[in-house]
Write a structure and sequence with these properties.
Blueprint: H1 6-13, H2 26-52, H3 60-71, H4 73-80, H5 95-121, E1 124-126, E2 133-134, E3 137-138, H6 139-166, H7 171-195, E4 202-204, H8 207-230, H9 242-270
Antiparallel strand pairs: 1-4, 2-3
Helix pairs in contact: 2-6, 3-6, 5-6, 5-8, 5-9, 6-7, 6-8, 7-8, 8-9
């Protein structure tokens, strides 16, 4: 079984190599390139829908169909058009399968559990005209989140790899990795919050508060997920199983949950704008 921290320690202690952006493993390299190309697809689709306000005529089926169109290519395309590196591999050994399992579990945990912090603590709410909802979150958004997160992690992993392979092992690699992850996590959280501002069915009581204080909460997702996801199949000496990916994602999910609750406790002690009602643990929420 893949050790949760073993690969991360291997990366941090590995000798300096020829700096590289893409993975050594052919299957992972193809998977990352595909995920980066896929990002352009869903971003274009989203821009068109938002610009033309096509969502104004949608109901449950409209949102669900759009979310499937957004997320399905992460699985359908690699099945129909596998990369050369994957054609001889069983599905369970292909990187894109493990990556999708990891992201699917993490995005589900985020929507089902972490979103309750947004509702109670940050005053967020979904007002989409839909009835297909799971624990306060429209089911279509679970799929859309999957597409988002596939892209976010595919973009960040090469950046981390370039730093890891281009620096000597030691304190600077650890410190530098931490600073890069923090910067990328904040940037990702802020830009997503900013770019969906034009969507009228995701509301905040105080949008400025969300952009400033709230973004430091959302970034916690990625502070843990970016380096943990990047470790998958990174070492040539080890190959993860699908179960390894699933368990690792669940470990990451628990770490983020603890961090989110710690943020709630700390923020409520230091930010006067948060009321006593907002600071209550959100665990009592139900579908």
């Amino acid at each position: 079984t893949q050790s949760t921290w073993g690969t991360l320690l291997d990366i941090e202690m590995a000798p300096k190599l020829e700096p590289r952006w893409l993975a050594d493993k052919p299957s992972k390299r193809w998977g990352e390139i595909f995920s980066l190309a896929f990002s352009g697809y869903w971003m274009l689709m989203l821009v068109v829908v938002l610009a033309l306000k096509m969502y104004e005529d949608w109901n449950d089926w409209g949102y669900l169909i759009f979310s499937i169109v957004i997320a399905a290519p992460t699985v359908v395309y690699p099945v129909l058009f596998p990369g050369a590196a994957d054609r001889a591999l069983p599905y369970c050994e292909r990187y894109w399968v493990k990556a999708n399992v990891w992201i699917a579990m993490f995005s589900f945990i985020g929507n089902f559990y972490y979103t309750q912090f947004f509702f109670s603590l940050l005053g967020a709410s979904y007002t989409l005209p839909v009835t297909w909802i799971l624990n306060g979150v429209p089911i279509a958004l679970y799929l859309v989140t999957h597409a988002y997160f596939v892209s976010y992690h595919a973009m960040v992993t090469p950046l981390l790899r370039r730093f890891w392979t281009g620096t000597e092992p030691g304190a600077w690699r650890w410190i530098g990795s931490g600073l890069i992850v923090l910067a990328l996590a904040y940037f990702t959280a802020f830009m997503e919050t900013l770019t969906i501002a034009s969507f009228p069915y995701y509301e905040f009581k105080d949008r400025t508060f969300m952009y400033t204080v709230g973004t430091t909460f959302y970034m916690l997702y990625f502070v843990f997920s970016f380096p943990m996801f990047a470790r998958m199949d990174e070492s040539l000496a080890q190959s993860w199983t699908v179960m390894d990916a699933l368990k690792d994602s669940m470990v990451c999910g628990m770490a983020v949950f603890i961090a989110c609750d710690a943020w709630r406790i700390g923020a409520c002690a230091m930010v006067p704008a948060l009321s006593a009602g907002q600071c209550k643990p959100p665990y009592g929420y139900c579908a």
